[in-house]
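Example 3.2
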Amino acid sequence: MSAARNPSEKIKVFVVDDHAVLRRGLAQLIEADGGMVFCGEAASAPEALEKMEKAPPDVAVVDISLRDSSGIDLIKDIKIRWPETAVLVLSMHDESFYAERVLRAGARGYVTKGEASEKVIEGIRRILRGEVYVSDKVTAKMLGKFVKGAAGSKDFSMDALSDRELEVFELLGQGLSTNQIAQRLHLSVKTIDTHRENIKRKLNIANASELLQRAIQWVRYERGG
């Protein structure tokens, strides 16, 4: 929780999502709560950082899938620039897979789109109290990993991919070429090729054709198809 925020003041909430309808819905939800105020919105990471620079919020509600930018990278940037701003992720992605990644990036909670709107308000209040807000299922999974320890956990699974490798993998599954991914992520083609090779090694993939097939399957799974 921000030490600079007066507890008697309303909680300032900033929303980052590339869907305008969702941002408007969240704005109404936040304004309907007597203890919160909707202080701004953005559709992309660069826009969010520019606006938040002028007036850092108490809480940023962030989607991890943003148009032409990475929500996970945005979380890391927010925590570097404004350590006292708490971040709550609101995403359509599978919480059981992404929650640990966003917590490592600096977020304090994860709410899945489609859950009751009250979960967003509850999540905001909980993370401002210094708590971590995730589902019981994710809590049990994380505790299980802790008890089990790291030994034997580095198998050929999606968990083995770094955040950047996962991002490249998803963009491949969305049909982007290596050149297009390099342009999207502002990286060199050589760097993307290196990520592709690392992905193949970590997922035990034999060739480029199998890599593309697996990436497409992953994106379909993520979209519930």
